[in-house]
Amino acid sequence: MSLLVDTTSSGREYKVKDMSQADFGRLEIDLAEVEMPGLMACRTEYGAAQPFAGARITGSLHMTIQTAVLIETLTALGAEVRWCSCNIFSTQDHAAAAIARDSAAVFAWKGETLQEYWWCTERALDWGASGGPDLIVDDGGDATLLIHEGVKAEEEYAKSGAVPDPNATDNPEFQIVLTIIRDGLKTDPKRFHKMKERLMGVSEETTTGVKRLYQMQTAGTLLFPAINVNDSVTKSKFDNLYGCRHSLPDGLMRATDVMIAGKVAVVCGYGDVGKGCASALKQAGARVMITEIDPICALQALMEGIPVVTLEDVLGEADIFVTTTGNKDIIMVSHMRKMKNNAIVCNIGHFDNEIDMHGLENYPGVKRIVIKPQTDRWVFPDTNTGIIVLAEGRLMNLGCATGHPSFVMSCSFTNQVIAQLELWNERKSGKYEKKVYVLPKHLDEKVAALHLGKLGAKLTKLTPEQSEYISVPVEGPYKPAHYRY
Amino acid sequence: MSLLVDTTSSGREYKVKDMSQADFGRLEIDLAEVEMPGLMACRTEYGAAQPFAGARITGSLHMTIQTAVLIETLTALGAEVRWCSCNIFSTQDHAAAAIARDSAAVFAWKGETLQEYWWCTERALDWGASGGPDLIVDDGGDATLLIHEGVKAEEEYAKSGAVPDPNATDNPEFQIVLTIIRDGLKTDPKRFHKMKERLMGVSEETTTGVKRLYQMQTAGTLLFPAINVNDSVTKSKFDNLYGCRHSLPDGLMRATDVMIAGKVAVVCGYGDVGKGCASALKQAGARVMITEIDPICALQALMEGIPVVTLEDVLGEADIFVTTTGNKDIIMVSHMRKMKNNAIVCNIGHFDNEIDMHGLENYPGVKRIVIKPQTDRWVFPDTNTGIIVLAEGRLMNLGCATGHPSFVMSCSFTNQVIAQLELWNERKSGKYEKKVYVLPKHLDEKVAALHLGKLGAKLTKLTPEQSEYISVPVEGPYKPAHYRY
Amino acid sequence: MSLLVDTTSSGREYKVKDMSQADFGRLEIDLAEVEMPGLMACRTEYGAAQPFAGARITGSLHMTIQTAVLIETLTALGAEVRWCSCNIFSTQDHAAAAIARDSAAVFAWKGETLQEYWWCTERALDWGASGGPDLIVDDGGDATLLIHEGVKAEEEYAKSGAVPDPNATDNPEFQIVLTIIRDGLKTDPKRFHKMKERLMGVSEETTTGVKRLYQMQTAGTLLFPAINVNDSVTKSKFDNLYGCRHSLPDGLMRATDVMIAGKVAVVCGYGDVGKGCASALKQAGARVMITEIDPICALQALMEGIPVVTLEDVLGEADIFVTTTGNKDIIMVSHMRKMKNNAIVCNIGHFDNEIDMHGLENYPGVKRIVIKPQTDRWVFPDTNTGIIVLAEGRLMNLGCATGHPSFVMSCSFTNQVIAQLELWNERKSGKYEKKVYVLPKHLDEKVAALHLGKLGAKLTKLTPEQSEYISVPVEGPYKPAHYRY
Amino acid sequence: MSLLVDTTSSGREYKVKDMSQADFGRLEIDLAEVEMPGLMACRTEYGAAQPFAGARITGSLHMTIQTAVLIETLTALGAEVRWCSCNIFSTQDHAAAAIARDSAAVFAWKGETLQEYWWCTERALDWGASGGPDLIVDDGGDATLLIHEGVKAEEEYAKSGAVPDPNATDNPEFQIVLTIIRDGLKTDPKRFHKMKERLMGVSEETTTGVKRLYQMQTAGTLLFPAINVNDSVTKSKFDNLYGCRHSLPDGLMRATDVMIAGKVAVVCGYGDVGKGCASALKQAGARVMITEIDPICALQALMEGIPVVTLEDVLGEADIFVTTTGNKDIIMVSHMRKMKNNAIVCNIGHFDNEIDMHGLENYPGVKRIVIKPQTDRWVFPDTNTGIIVLAEGRLMNLGCATGHPSFVMSCSFTNQVIAQLELWNERKSGKYEKKVYVLPKHLDEKVAALHLGKLGAKLTKLTPEQSEYISVPVEGPYKPAHYRY
């Protein structure tokens, strides 16, 4: 690829779409700060002490306005930061520009190719001759994946001299990853080993990324400590649920202007993300149905008046299809062919493989009509009817709208800051092994507490007698670990 | 003004922002047609007969994608059409371009000045030497106003030779109207009289426009028949209510990306528009309060769990303020000064005078920061806090988003088509005098019926015995005139 | 019949179930007064002037605690009152006892036979030798019906000597009515004429009763003025809607203890009553469907996410069936046979003929199992499955629970008091002819205003400038007559 | 006490209110069976094998219709059962009668005194000379408490000869417990030791009971294995949440007939029970506020549009107060004095000490007016205003209504059956130590699955590829242990 890194006047590297949008980005960052009390409280509480002094942090996480406030919280606490997006459509170019100009090295723009995407990831991990980052903020686990695959390849190369063969996989994205690693072996066959050595740990944002980490922990292949931010209550029960309740209709409306009221909508999956989506659609006046594999989640849907169906049974009836499962192959091209004309198909769950984009793109005679970026009408030759696919099957709230709103991201990102502080502060203590950890409940409760004032809430205090009666400390934590909220 | 009218290759006049967006507009019009079954059914039912053959229709109504489908329904039925927008921010430029290129004379773009706005209105009414339109589709009543004011001025001029004095009013917009009329008197002192003579009637879309019409009817000054489309059940109880339920959060999200959940929102007015707004905000997780003058609407709010407050009592508590009253001077600059930092202030009710924009603009030392078009932060010098005003106080759903979605507009606009057909078909019968009429209930029910199939509904039929028992014809109308739905 | 009228120590007649419940009734009346601010305000405003001094009022309206507060408001204003219930199951015996002991002549108990029901109605209309009442408060129109049928029979008798033949109808209830009239002719062939002469008018509570009145008005057979209380906004849009939203689930729970969440519920009819029922069931977690004949109401349901189906299509799927139509023959025995085992069938609309009780009772081999009063399981011989019918097909909220709650009935009944005052105050003015009237909007608004304080609401006042701008008086009325709320 | 045990013709002991209600109880049990698919499926799956043959089960759990179906499931699987209620007001006398006549030894009636309550508990544990039960089904932990306190006293008595002194506590209920134990020591100083020896374990139903068990586990004083049924997802996230959402309004309506719409309601505590209550009140049209000590739960409320307040701040504003905390001293008499006239105060959380009933009863000059059983108006002498207290401060859904509906209790009780089976089947394996266990996730999922068919749900199946991709077995369990639903 012929991409060139740009450099600010102060010498910081970047690659963004349009640096002239930096002022606009700054205005929106200013607004977002008012909506992100948790992050701002971290600046107030920790800023003066500069706890991240000397720390290099690489982030691979949607380069949005909200992420900008996260980055500038990390830098306000003393960190040096390099950043890329974790989704080819999720960057907000004005946010990227403002951060690139003012605060950190950014490699991200809206509408990257997959090649460009991994080039950006590599750049964000590349701290020059002295190795990689001290800490990673990851979302979906791509930065973590690259290092793990890189180390694996370097080991094989050291042992046998073999280099990865991109043609060994038919996954086009993984071919790119292997190519990057293969090419790197020539110039520095220990690049990823050096990264691994330096790394104090990763904090991971999402269900999908966390699943990968636990799999590596189980397999014994995890190379550094990991904090599972996703399973903080103030993350998964807020961002996944309330964030999607906000951003799903936002994405639908910006992409299609369709009236949700009166429509039949099928949400595949009724986890936290699915619950948020179903709630939003129902409240907007749609008739919502869900599909589920898990009988408990299915029964929850029923208790909310939502029928549990199979996708096959409602293909010809529904107007809107949303995948939220974190699994692959949820809506196949064979399903899409049976849908109503102009049925909307979108994914807010996980990777674009929830929807069979590969099958759709390769359907004989299919015609793609770009209505506008991220909104495509695909017309089948046999029926001459079309379906509307959002964000090319990728996360539609980030591709078609601006992702989750600032306030709920403040909860998630305050967890990130706390997790990064934990990993950094304990870097020498041995507290964290090569395992996956969740934050202790008192920190989770602290994140929540930091967000109450903005909304005018007033907590009640336990009396000493009440505290004793229920054996709960006056200052918390207030619930046992297994409490489900 | 130095605005010049453009001309298509076929000789049709237009003035739009960017003709190159016509293809994009056409794609969105194609999608909208699928969502507007009532309009499409009109084409099927009446198209072949060309009932509007020979009719000239002028429209002054937000030049959106949905309106494009309305316009092309009118032309499909044989009409010739000229169009302008009824709001300086509400035009969708790609819609305007597609219509200008393909179907009708359009004078509209997003972000007109007030001068440009009235120039467009004048153009839409100007059918050349042979006078004005046969029919008007009006929204808010500006086209109707211009003719009435013009006729009044021409009468005065004929009587006394006096011309209107723009300085006689301190309303800057009305100064423009008077200037236009004054300037026209020089070239053709009977221009508006000729229009009046030709006009078969107007069909009016909104509560505000209808109110003006009834006032003129009462005063005996109405110059031609008017059909009150707003008070068709399938308009006011659908577009006003369900349209705003959809487009208020849409506008808020596109303009500010603010998280609605957790916020305190005050909706001023609990009529149909206010009910839609309050419902949307509540369902998105806001704590909603309303203000009302009418005890019945207030009691309705209470029955839905919504407190009824005065604006003064909650200024420092609320995060979002929405005006829906149809009245003026609802939120004054004295109120705005007492709001929280970054409180959002917007109007979805009527004209920009619901919010005291004049007072705000002239507040000593106030600073306006344009975040992006239609999203301004106004900072007060004394507190150094700011508020965010959407769409410069004009209809925020049209200024910041794309207005109501197609499906609900199909209900409203099918009423428009039917009203226009009534006025045209009865142009010689004397059925309609210079009064305000509502459509008969069976036509209202027909509009609803045309929209059921798209949503998969199946009506029940009265048996003859049941029909007799309740004295309601099997084919309807099903309710007495006073029924409230 | 061998029913005997009892007499209090003060000489007032009554017939109730159990006078020992009077104390309990009084306690509940005391509680209800706190919840009925409109009625209490009437006592405060009008009590001292005793406007009803000399007036005889007969009421035929569910003898509940709320009605007790109405009755005692009428007596507090000087009226003498006789009362019966308008439904064989709706009397609350403790309410009847308290009123009989303390305030008015009551003839009502829970579980009357139809014979007893009409005996009670006759007693309530029987003011002794000096004729009938001056005013009637009617609900469903049975008292009005009896007088009209009586007058008709007396006219025929005077003309031809013919007496009504109960066997001329196969409606068993109407046979009873004719029998009463026939038997009365022997003792006083001018009884109903005397009533008619004295009567100043009736105020009618319900949709069904009002429909009858308008039919008589159209036919020219209405014998006295009538005020349509049902169509006061503060009645039909409150009691019908919010009252049923409260009392439908109340009746279901008391009768069956069934979990509503997760169930499929079909509401037949989506008028005000149906809207209240559908809303309650949806919010409790049921999947709600409706049936409708009216396309406008159907489209409203769709906008709320409620599918519009035909009863036939969902017989085997639904768990709960509710009729709200005001029509007859909605759920037939042929439908019931196809329902799931233990499907619940109930009516909250109108008379018991919404459900084909006659067909059910006469179905060959059907078996009725009384679970408890008003809750019957009917088992079909062929399938050996059963359905559960509430309140024998009559209004289930009154039969199985306690009807609408006090607060919303205070709205309805304040309208009744105002209507009765109008009829009485204008008895000599000729203001009211033998027609049906609705109360003027300012009185409707007054009723609402009287209920705001209790709920802590604070109205906004129009400024004079605003008042002029929208041409609405500062003190109201605030809306045009056709406004739909 | 002079209570005498009755005996059926077959020799089984019982003490119930009225054996003549057994037929009515049986009819309602028949209906409930149709609504309790999980329990019925247990009978089908395990009945033939008679797994409980030889097992003695004592239950201390609200003796309702639903519990009757549980008891008869246990007996259908071979168990012998003795039962008491765990709340003085929660017994449904017809249910108790049916079970006493047909299936098990029952000692329970609605409206026990505390003395009677503990007499019943003692009877249920008393299996005659051969010791106590093999298994306990407990709710709130009273049966477990009695045994633990008994064993402790017997140990002290064996050691020092000292007997418990009831006057050593000022808790009147605990005085009764100590008296029972003291009196028992005289006749059999090893009674509770013998029980302890025989007991295979307890399965506990509630949050409160579970908390006690964990405290004993931590203290090392737990005498036998315990299964925490409460924290099965299909219990705490269903019964606590959806059960209360149903039964809170049911209790309010039966006790007071109050209109919930328009009222201000304060829910103390926003755990599962509080969430259910707040949701129900909000949906019924109340303005809901909550109090919380836990910032996470508080933030959840805010995201649903519910303000978080302190009780002190809203005492004069609210109409309805509900405690759901599981803690004591939530609403004190000092609070009650400041409430509005006829404010309703009730508890659905835990014991009657959530409300300061002691303080209320002993408030100088306070007057109690019994409106009807479980509905008392308490009038303060200084203000002469009153508040309405439900169920004497005990669980109002059981005291004033019929508790949770059958369907959701089927989920809870199927967990109980499975837990009892586990304890019994593993009685010799040593699998369960003297600790607290939760059921494994696959059993939790099984409980849910058993309830889907009744509601017409259709689950989706993972393909092998999907199963591998997300590392989840096709047959489940589908979620990690920490998943929160």
Automatic annotation (TrEMBL), chains A, B, C, D:
UniProt: NAD(+) binding residues: 206-208, 271-276, 292, 348-350, 397, 404
A GO molecular function for this record?
adenosylhomocysteinase activity
Q: Record's Pfam families?
A: AdoHcyase, AdoHcyase_NAD
Going by the UniProt record, its keywords in alphabetical order are: Hydrolase, NAD, One-carbon metabolism
Q: Cite the cofactor comment.
A: Binds 1 NAD(+) per subunit.
Residues covered by the S-adenosyl-L-homocysteine hydrolase NAD binding domain:
240-403
Q: In which pathway does it act?
A: Amino-acid biosynthesis; L-homocysteine biosynthesis; L-homocysteine from S-adenosyl-L-homocysteine: step 1/1
Record-level GO BP terms: one-carbon metabolic process; S-adenosylmethionine cycle
This protein's cofactor list reads:
NAD(+)
The GO cellular component terms are: cytosol
Q: Does the keyword Hydrolase apply?
A: yes
Query: Per the UniProt record, which EC number(s) apply here?
Result: 3.13.2.1
What catalytic activity is recorded?
S-adenosyl-L-homocysteine + H2O = L-homocysteine + adenosine
- Uppermost EC category: hydrolase
Q: Which residues bind substrate?
A: 64, 139, 205, 235, 239
Q: Does the keyword Chloroplast apply?
A: no
Q: What does this protein do?
A: Adenosylhomocysteine is a competitive inhibitor of S-adenosyl-L-methionine-dependent methyl transferase reactions; therefore adenosylhomocysteinase may play a key role in the control of methylations via regulation of the intracellular concentration of adenosylhomocysteine.
Do you know which HAMAP family this protein is assigned to? AdoHcyase (MF_00563)
Q: Which NCBIfam families match?
A: ahcY, PRK05476.2-3
Q: Which family does it belong to?
A: Belongs to the adenosylhomocysteinase family.
Official protein name in the record: Adenosylhomocysteinase
Tell me the organism.
Aristolochia fimbriata (White veined hardy Dutchman's pipe vine)
